[in-house]
Write a structure and sequence with these properties.
252 residues, two-stranded parallel sheet, globular, seven-stranded parallel β-sheet
């Protein structure tokens, strides 16, 4: 069987938030396509289960707190020392934060934590991988944002803020590194069936599903297919873009 541009043979692919949900689905898919996946998550026990399931080596799983810049820097530095290159970073780590809560009622600690993990974590991960990617003149960076970053969801101000910030960040950084063989893109899912949405209120979920023309939530495996393409060699002439997996909710 001949190789294609969507294969990942001999490529090191770092995936954050890989212990469950979209990150886990992406890890399984890219691992199956020959990629040397390195999985990051704060959920150590679940990460160890994935390690066993995929028969990974010890250096292919790392605990990380993307809301802590030192944790991000140290983890990425350790991976780079071990492998010598990171071909792709897929960042799926994130939290929903408060849902169905009026903006004026949101506790600032909750607001700040959501932005810190989702937006600042995105920035810190990007800063950590860029120097080596620039040196190697190749890289694929993919950040999972949300349809909420484009359209907003009521009662979710911290999440909306963090995800729209991610989209703006991706646009600017992509233009900085476009001549260097590095692409930086985002992916904006609508509501997806993952543990991340387990604590989202029924009212908020019903609102989000009502906006989807397909009339259903998406599956993690559907999102993973898009992530794998964006992180592959095949995605060579698209950068600074926000792809959608929204069941028709967004068409722009």
């Amino acid at each position: 069987m001949s190789e294609t541009l969507t294969d990942f043979k001999d490529q090191v692919v770092v995936i954050s938030g890989a212990a469950q949900g979209i990150g886990l689905a992406a890890a399984k898919l890219i691992h199956g396509r020959g990629g040397q996946v390195v999985l990051l998550d704060v959920l150590v026990e679940k990460l160890q289960h994935v390690k066993v399931e995929l028969s990974l080596e010890a250096d292919q799983v790392h605990q990380i707190d993307v809301g802590d810049p030192e944790s991000v820097r140290n983890t990425i530095a350790e991976i780079e020392k071990c492998y010598g290159q990171i071909h792709a970073l897929i960042n799926t780590a994130g939290i929903v934060g408060p849902t169905n809560v009026g903006t004026e009622l949101i506790d600032w600690t909750d607001f700040e934590r959501t932005v810190r993990i989702n937006l600042f974590g995105t920035i810190w991960l990007t800063q950590a991988v860029l120097p080596l990617m620039k040196e190697k003149k190749y890289g694929r960076i993919v950040h999972v944002t949300s349809i909420a970053g484009k359209e907003g969801n009521p009662g979710m101000s911290p999440y909306n803020t963090s995800k729209s910030g991610m989209i703006g960040f991706v646009k600017g950084v992509a233009k900085e590194v476009a001549p260097l063989g590095i692409t930086v893109n985002a992916l904006a899912p609508a509501v997806i069936s993952t543990p991340m949405n387990a604590n989202t209120s029924d009212e908020t979920l019903k609102y989000m599903i009502s906006r989807i023309p397909m009339g259903r939530v998406g599956e993690a495996e559907e999102v993973a297919e898009m992530l794998a393409f964006i992180a592959s060699k095949a995605c060579s002439y698209t950068t600074g873009f926000t792809f959608d997996t929204s069941g028709g909710r967004a068409t722009y």
